[in-house]
Known about the structure:
466 residues, single chain, 19 helices, two-stranded parallel ribbon
Amino acid sequence: MGLCLGSLGSSIACCFGNAFCSLCCSACPACKGSTSTRIAYSLILLAGLITSCIMLIPGLENFLHKIPALCKNTALDKQLLTIIDCSKVIGSLAVYRLSFGLTLFFGILSLVMIKVRNSNDFRAKIQNGFWAFKILIAIGLIVAAFFIPNTGFDYAFMIVGLIGGFFFILVQLLFSIDFVHSWNESWVDQVESGSKKHGYGLLFFTFLFYIVTITAVILFYIYYAPDRFICRLHTFFISFNLCLCVILSIISILPCVREYNSSCGLLQSSFVSLYVIYYTWSAMSNNPDSRCNPSFSSIIHPTNSTLLTNSIRQQNLSDPITILGLILFICTLFYSVVTTSRNSRAKKLFLSSSIDSTILDDAQLVNSITDDKWILGKDEQHHQHVYDDERGSIKYNYSLFHLMFLLATLYAMMTLTNWYAPAKDFHTYNNNLASLWVKIVSSWLCVALYVWTCIAPAVFPDRDFS
């Protein structure tokens, strides 16, 4: 009996330690512990996103009311006292509460993980282990958020969400520009080394991005500004952003700019132009006026009725534009939250040449590599798929990683709840003027940031911008 209890206790303890994450990867190829940890946190955030989408499904409340003894009073309810109010677990306010719990969870971890240097720190063990405890804490914070009184909560957290979501967009823009600069530098180095295929690749992608940009602008004028008077705001957005794309392309090839910043080129300007046009499309797709924001079906089967009535644009999950927007949102979301936690990107984010928690000296680096090889050999011998690669130093900034997840949670919450005017479900998903202006301003910030990265070395020639 004691042996059985001991075995049961050991099995339960495994779920609360590092082995919990290893069990999930038992059927996967060998991977680093830092990678498996980030995947696990991404799954927590993904579960929150999926749950938020479920909370906004049209007709969910009616479905829940059909379940006996859940939402409606029955003879059984009178004896057991129903504690579930189904109206509180659906809609935008429920998404606010779920996001509030996740925001607290990632915020606490971000504060706890400040200045963690290596995996020997006890806080690193919290980061990479105790998964069952952390999941229980996250669920507890989410459940507790549903008991917060409604008075002023939605408005106060909406302000927090607006600020956090805007900062997430800003950081996403920063590292998107950093990505295209790194891409160009890498391929230019290959071209200088004699690689013709990389030269053809640069030309191909440059022309491709510009062709897609010009095609999109033409389609915008046709479908999103059919009447220059009624849709004059869209006409201004398209024309103004097109001019900005031309200006940033010219700046990229100016001799005075390339003299101090040789990495600038047409590949970056074409990529940024396409990015700006995407945000322009995304902003115009949030306009509630259906006369300037046609549905996909009306584009395929055009009619003149859209210009005669000032109806509110109704968008739902079956709309291809919404589906594409959700796919792009999820892809850019997880790309941003994973890449921005790298040590090199942490330095760029805080405009610092070094970060104490991520500095490695030569001795530490050698020890880290040696430890990795020793652990990997031992893991292969014992068929262990997840091995510790942070014995010498951490591979990414823990605190910044959780901060990015916090901002991503707020951005997701604001996207799913229409930024400023929350809807009860997906019937009016993301169609309001507040979302329109947030995204159009983001496109202008993207241009400003890119132009600054091009001209900053020329403006401050004595500073090192490498």
